[in-house]
Here is the input.
Amino acid sequence: MGLFDKLEHHVTLVNRMADIVNADLAEATQRGTLSETDLREAVGNCVGCEGGVDCPDWLAANAAGSDQTPDYCRNQSLFARLKA
Here is the structure.
């Protein structure tokens, strides 16, 4: 997988995780509670996550929604903050 494909994959994972835990990234960006830097860091956190192999399965199993991310998610605190 090339670099751009890998980044696109993780952007998708971040967006899906945010949707599942009801953390609206677009709204947070509009409100100014999520900066472009925050979003880039979230994708970088996802790229470096050791749970990345399990993440697609977790996302599929929780497609209807979840109160929180899995414990291994490196963006857990970001999504919790955006939900608050």
Notes: The radius of gyration is 12 Å. Residues 47 and 79 are 16 Å apart (CA to CA). The chain has a mean pLDDT of 94.
